[in-house]
């Protein structure tokens, strides 16, 4: 069994303020350690269920947050960014049996995490795919589905876990936190590690192929920007059009083209 893991930090237990996600800030280190431990717990759960290869993508910020010493020796870690359209799931392909998402967070416009955003809070106010406010979970789950790889496990905030269940009812989730206003209510770090490991084992021991999601036949992507001049400039991407002073739209039947579009206009 070959397992792919994509990891973010805003959905790691305890993480509440932007300074705690910033590699350059003194608040960052303990949360990078917890991120690393939560990813390691997922690796251990997968390995104990029969995984022979585990590929981890550090998907936050610089892509250099996970501390390699915390990962087991059988894991492989992609640090930094290749620059390809798959971004947070760079390296996934049809040879993987399943994918796990660790430390993910609610989408832009969501009130369920004080750090809710989609791809870039500095540039983007929201993204919709076929009329649904898109989380990074949705965007990357579809990217995995493009390669016929089911996302079988997700950890993050409670709002995102509920969002994921609405899209993929058979996915196994662990809610490590709940956002209220500018605050979070978190489970204890050791409990998060325990639950992630045990629930990953549970997910991979079940008929996880039931987590496969069929891609829509057509995609309409809408991006709302914080600044009107950014929307205007990006409306010149081939196939895109300006639909309001701060929003553009792009239509395609090919999900890889959605990922390529997002790479260049965000």
Q: What does the model show?
A:
This protein has helices at residues 29-47, 136-146, 158-167, 189-205, 228-234, 255-265; strands at residues 2-7, 53-58, 75-78, 98-104, 124-129, 132-133, 151-157, 172-180, 183-186, 219-225, 240-244, 247-252. The chain has 266 residues and is α/β, with parallel strands linked by helices. The protein has a 7-stranded mixed β-sheet, sandwiched between helices. Strands 6-5-10-12-11 form a 5-stranded antiparallel β-sheet. Helix 1 packs parallel to helix 4 (189-205). The model has no long low-confidence stretch (mean pLDDT 98).
In short:
With 266 residues, the protein is an alpha/beta fold.
Features:
266 residues, alpha/beta, 7-stranded mixed β-sheet, 5-stranded antiparallel β-sheet, 6 helices, 12 strands, 28% helix, 26% strand
Kindly state the mean pLDDT as a whole number? Answer: 98
Strand content: 25-35%
Taking the sheet with the most strands, its summary is: 7 strands, mixed
Question: What oligomerization state is this entry in?
Answer: single chain
Order of helices and strands: EHEEEEEHEHEEHEHEEH
Largest sheet, spatial ordering of strands: 3-2-1-4-7-8-9
Output the number of helix runs.
6
Q: What percent of residues adopt helix (DSSP H or I)?
A: 25-40%
Radius of gyration: 17 Å
Distance between the termini: 34 Å
Shape: globular
Low-confidence stretches: none
Q: Which structural class matches the secondary elements?
A: alpha/beta
Please provide the count of β strands: 12
